[in-house]
Design goal:
With 194 residues, the protein is an alpha+beta fold. Helices cover 36% and strands 15% of the residues. Helix 2 packs antiparallel against helix 5.
Length: 194
């Protein structure tokens, strides 16, 4: 099997991170991979905000967790995701929806029909680059809701991100804490050939 495809098949969402910060040289490579993601009409109108401030990341992570459940009892809407890398769906004692990742990326793109497509492509390039370079990463949605809060809007402005952009996703980065998750089998019947 092709080495790149094999690496793609072994990527997993990582939610347990060591507290050492990501090496700048590795981070630069990952960010460059994100910038080379496709964008609608090659617009390249996106921003990747890199936050390594643990206080900000903790507060945004708590807001993200809240947005997941929106005041509902987590047990009533949760479903199992991973016992090896538990999510806020698996372990209700996890209060930070960013899982204490030392580096949190927020991806903003131009508003419009393809905004989420552009942001997701940047996110996927980052996830793959992180895995290829030995880091753990996790894609987190709910970013629009998080940045619609007063705290989120304050950061958006402080970070100098244009108001005509939309926050699409967060990507959490860090060195993996603990063993790498085992391979999860793929469900059958998901390819239709016509």
């Amino acid at each position: 099997m092709n080495e790149i495809i094999e690496k793609m098949l072994t990527r997993h969402a990582i939610r347990r991170f060591q507290q050492r910060q990501v090496d700048n040289e590795i981070l630069d490579q990952i960010l460059t991979a994100g910038l080379y993601a496709p964008s609608a009409g090659n617009n390249q109108y996106s921003r990747i905000v890199v936050c390594q401030d643990s206080e900000i990341n903790e507060k945004l992570g708590r807001i993200s967790r809240y947005m997941q459940f929106k005041g509902q009892d987590p047990k009533s809407i949760a479903h199992s995701i991973s016992s090896e890398q538990p999510s806020i769906q698996d372990d209700f004692t996890i209060m930070n929806g960013f899982y204490n990742a030392p580096t949190v990326l927020t991806i903003f793109t131009r508003d419009g029909v393809y905004a989420h497509d552009d942001g997701a492509m940047i996110g996927e390039n980052i996830l793959l680059a992180a895995h290829f370079l030995g880091l753990g990463a996790c894609y987190v949605g709910r970013t629009g809701e998080v940045f619609a809060t007063e705290y989120g809007r304050t950061l958006w402005k402080a970070w100098g991100v244009p108001e005509d952009m939309v926050p699409v996703c967060n990507v959490l980065l860090g060195y993996i804490d603990g063993p790498f998750p085992h391979e999860k089998p793929r469900r059958e019947g998901r390819i239709v050939r016509v």
